[in-house]
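Much of our argument rests on the idea that a fold can be written as discrete symbols. In the encoding step, the backbone of a single protein was reduced to a row of integers, each denoting a local shape. We regard such an encoding as a compact summary of how the chain folds. The record that follows shows the chain in one-letter code together with its fold in token form:
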Amino acid sequence: MLFPNNKPLPFQVRANLYTQLAQMETAGLPFDRAFAVLNLPSPVQSRLDVVRGLLKKGAEFASAGEKSGLFTKLESRLIRAAMNAGSPANMYRCLGDYYTDRALQLSTMKSRLALPAFMFLAALFIQPIPALVTGSLSGAGYLWQVLKPILLVAAAIYGFRFLVNRDARSNGKSSYQSLPLYGPIFVRQNLRDFLKRWR
């Protein structure tokens, strides 16, 4: 599975990327050689290849990372500022820690949603069984009664994500920023979490 160039890398991949860059920068390895030895999942290699090609053409490192989709616009600006100030090692470390925390939060949230999702599916399958046993519901009717709520929920989620992502791409923002009530909270939370590391 390839990551679309207009979509940021998953949190865990970004955490691994910046952690490795921080370690290699601290060890004194130049960034062009660091990119040659990065150990990332194979779908990300296409973006790394684009970065290497742009660097060979003389492109600036942070801009090459942004154009390839390896860095977001914010990450590119932060890395550029850190490089202009001297060494980006501290910035890499900060980004690595930040995305490690975000990946852990996302994993925890998914694990906690697993039980409610299982209970929802179990209820869908169990609730029509008495009608099926008594013969008031046919096998096809049972199957439709089970699948109909699942299809409706899936369609609602897909439609919502499509509208939010389309609006986010047109504005150059994260899809979460486009949510009516949660968007401003998402921005403030990210700023708080990021700046908290610099205190």
Remarks:
- Residues 127-196 form one domain.
